[in-house]
C-alpha cells in the first residue's frame, strides 16, 4: 500500500507542478506544492524499496 501512496503523490505533484503551476489552492501556489508532494512521494517510494531490500 505504501508504494501506491508514493506513486499517487508523485503523479499528483507532477500534475500540480506542470499544469496548475500558477493557480492558488487556499494559501499555496500550485508549482511549489506540486514539487513538495512529488518529493514526499519519491521519499515514500525509496523508503518502501529500502525496507523491501532488508533481510
Tell me what the structure shows.
The protein is mainly α and 55 residues long. It has 2 helices and 2 strands; from the N terminus they run H-E-E-H. The protein has helices at 2-19, 30-53; strands spanning 24-25, 28-29. Helix 1 (2-19) runs antiparallel to helix 2.
Summarize this structure as a short list of keywords or feature phrases:
about 55 residues, mainly alpha, two-stranded antiparallel sheet, about 75% helix, elongated
Structural domain tally: 1
How would you spell out the order of helices and strands?
A: HEEH
Which range does the strand content fall in?
5-15%
Distance between the termini: 20 Å
Radius of gyration: 13 Å
How many helices? The count is 2
For the biggest sheet, the summary is:
2 strands, antiparallel
Neighbour order of strands in the largest sheet: 1-2
Mean pLDDT: 87
The helicity comes to over 70%
Low-pLDDT windows of residues: none
Structural class: mainly alpha
Task: Give me the secondary-structure topology.
Blueprint: H1 2-19, E1 24-25, E2 28-29, H2 30-53
Antiparallel strand pairs: 1-2
Helix pairs in contact: 1-2
Concise overview:
The protein has two helices and two strands.
